[in-house]
Amino acid sequence: MSRIEHRFAQRRSENRTTLVTYITGGDPRPEVTVPLMHTLVNAGADVIEVGMPFSDPMADGPVIQSACDRALAGGTGIAGVLAMIRDFRRDDQDTPVVLMGYLNPIEQTGYAAFAREAAAAGVDGVLTVDLPPEEGNELVAELAEHALDPIWLVAPTTSDERIRAICDHARGFVYYVSLKGVTGAATLDIDSVSSHVESIRSATQLPVGVGFGVRDGADAGRLGEVADAVVVGSALVSRIAEHVDDQPALLAAVSEITHDLRHGLDAATVEALP
Question: Which residue among the candidates 27, 46, 60, 266 is catalytic per the annotation?
């Protein structure tokens, strides 16, 4: 059983929703990322997505675009992100880590080298934002060779037929993008999310994570009632951006919002119990 599978099974046995948190590797500076990852875990994060900085993050809004700019300005690329994850693994062998990013830097590294080095660093899954599953056979084969889970996105506009096709390629969990547009967009429609999650569940036994638009513990709690996992990115990265020159304040701010997210999920679970 992979770390991702184990963590979801663990939370399911506890009747708790999995909290997936996103940060951009190297933001605001390379030396902050590993302490930030440990802070997230200590505050209640179950899975960490680490973004691979890219100069043209077309699916991301201004918050994460700025995070990529800060990371790139500090010299962080794929090799730097993998070094950070190796460092994180010295003290944490349990928390699943998912790399999230765009295909171009992976192609430049080479699929085989990327998968080999990611697995050696302690990565558990890979989400490529701009790679359709039907075009990903070569990369997926390399990921499978190194026991890395390919994680795919499903959008509100995705047809039922395409959902089934995506789920056939997926491992680890399926990531439902709950809003149209770029990351950081607003306004959650829980009824719509619930309907789409059920459509995904009819096509797969994998857990379904929901992200985009989660701003606080209240949002997380509402989504946690209909999803297996809640994914939070822009709300965390916004806190990082507020304290780029003050690491203690940055870590405290991230810890505070992560605690709030965890509390919101757990409180909603308790209320939902008979």
Answer: 60
Q: Is 256 in the active site?
A: no
- How many domains are contained in the chain? 1
pLDDT digits (tens, 9 = 90+) for 93-106: 999 999 999 999 99
CATH number, domain of 96, equals 3.20.20.70
Which one of 27, 49, 142, 266 is the catalytic residue?
49
| Whether residue 60 lies in the annotated active site | yes
Segments in the chain below pLDDT 70:
58, 179-188, 269-274
Phi, then psi, of 176 in degrees rounded to 5: -95, 120
Q: Residue 71 belongs to what domain range?
A: 3-272
Which residues on adjacent β-strands are paired with residue 18?
229
In this prediction, residue 171 carries a pLDDT of 96
The model's pLDDT over 108-120, given as tens digits with 9 standing for 90+, comes to 999 999 999 999 9
